[in-house]
């Protein structure tokens, strides 16, 4: 078990770590966490709880994810860690030439063009089929009920919803976006904090997904509805694209950091960026560094990780380098030399060529799940399929239109993906799931949370609550309002262009559950930057 300090830590926290014995669910919405706990109490396992929570979050936090999301999962069952990649592929007929012919120099953010096949419903069904205990239709019942009967909007959710509405009202004026406003801004405005919001369309679609084990979404009535609306708006996505989708079970990747194995999903996810950065720092006695040098080295390491990740990460079938090469000690030794006393502008190394919700669950049997799903950039593409409540993600926006780039747009290809679940083990025993949602903040959040926990012994809640930084680009670094001013000034003297954020909304939102291998006691932390909650018993 991690040696954590529950009484003395350098950061003031707004919550305390939660302890439990029989089960735990950590999520960004209290009602969703309770849904997962209810499944555990009904005799379900951690996988059942994760599926039910994820489905509920499509209703309870539509500002970050939806039925049209992608998903990834790391699942610990019976002394083994499994990875599930449920990110969808681009439409078979899309191409760089076709997108440029539409007048775009870069992939657009909104509309049908950046829409790839949604993977979340397929992920729920695949997890249930392989590891679940309760009936699939029972797992989606709470989400269906919340959609049909409604629920009151929580504070951070209401703020995020209003931000998206204000942006969409200015930018999404084309007829193809009309269904978004009908669904998410009834009566011409977003639901307010404390106001009841319901969506019968969500309820109807989730019910059909539940009754068909998600088959309708990919090869049935729902697929027809998606494909028909795509065709009516000159979209590339077809019924054949949906029918071709299946989630993929993959082997997770890891590095050993100060005695612990830190696990991430392999590319096309960006989790490898966190591992690259930790690999660069693993020879450091971090506790002997000054606070300023620690932050400086973290920032420089994550910049090197992003330089490589954004150059090489794409569909694993199309990758020109191997994950093992990016994570090798030899390559780390080479790249580590680039971390000097002043801020740098790193370039990718030379190698052999070859909006989001996060939740964590654990049960009394030792099963644990690290699960993440997202539409991207909040509500995603701005496209909502009429009469379904399905807000489609816009993951294709990360494709490059440069033919020489590894992540260049091609038909039937998975793009570089920002959403990443994490998992920690020690000596082949599970410690537990962790994650920090939030676009390109995610590997940066993973790095900071893991170092807080391993190097400084912060318990889960303190590890999450500690002030965060976020590298933006070049030498630009954003720090939270609570970030120590003297440290920020010292980093600026090292060449970092420090900006102090006025709020913490962009610094990621995480969850952690650790398990003591000897006693089975669970301890969890939830994000103070959102409406996060832990449900436990």
Quick recap of the structure?
The chain has 537 residues and is an alpha+beta fold. The protein has helices at 30-41, 46-60, 96-101, 120-131, 136-149, 155-171, 178-184, 200-211, 215-219, 221-232, 239-243, 271-281, 291-312, 323-326, 329-336, 442-454, 460-465, 485-493, and strands spanning 18-20, 23-27, 70-77, 80-86, 151-152, 196-197, 248-250, 253-257, 260-264, 357-363, 368-374, 384-385, 390-391, 422-426, 429-437, 469-473, 476-479, 497-500, 509-515, 522-526, 533-536.
Can you tell me about this structure?
The structure is a single chain. The protein has 537 residues and is of the alpha+beta class. The protein folds into 2 domains: 30-249 and 373-396, no CATH class; 251-353 and 420-536, Gamma-glutamyltranspeptidase, small (S) subunit (Glutamine Phosphoribosylpyrophosphate, subunit 1, domain 1). It has helices spanning 30-41, 46-60, 96-101, 120-131, 136-149, 155-171, 178-184, 200-211, 215-219, 221-232, 239-243, 271-281, 291-312, 323-326, 329-336, 442-454, 460-465, 485-493; strands at residues 18-20, 23-27, 70-77, 80-86, 151-152, 196-197, 248-250, 253-257, 260-264, 357-363, 368-374, 384-385, 390-391, 422-426, 429-437, 469-473, 476-479, 497-500, 509-515, 522-526, 533-536. A 7-stranded antiparallel β-sheet has the order 1-20-19-15-14-9-8. The relative contact order is 0.20. Mean pLDDT is 94; it is low at 6-13. InterPro entries: GGT-like_enzyme, GGT_lsub, GGT_peptidase, GGT_ssub_C, Ntn_hydrolases_N. This enzyme consists of two polypeptide chains, which are synthesized in precursor form from a single polypeptide. Pathway: Sulfur metabolism; glutathione metabolism.
